[in-house]
From TrEMBL:
SMART domains: GHB. It is found in: Secreted. Pfam families: Cys_knot. GO terms for cellular component: cytoplasm; extracellular space. This is Thyrotropin subunit beta.
Amino acid sequence: MSPFFVMSLLFGLTFDQTASLCTPSEYIIHVEKRECAYCLAINTTICAGFCMTRDSNGKKLLLKSALSQNVCTYKEMLYQTALIPGCPHHTIPYYSYPVAVSCKCGKCNTDYSDCVHEKVRTNYCTKPQKLCNM
């Protein structure tokens, strides 16, 4: 093997973030309330991508904390609020959502992330749609 390849491999194993493709990605959230006349399509950013993980062959010999896998998650985020159009006066017409500013590979924090991969998820409107560009 060439010395360059060996050095690159060692550097990549030492700093596994360099091989990660975990970045803020554009995403559209569809929001609707039963009482409101419209569905709101919100353009935002979420953390998505690939994180280096290692699967140990000695799972029975290691502590469960040593087996956790890294996921692409928020490093910095902020919340924005959108107004859902067509809501009656007795309904709260606001929807707050996270916007990814920067991302990292790390352990999934259930305080602000859904760490479970759902098999089937629909993200669509059943009412007339309004687009919200934030």
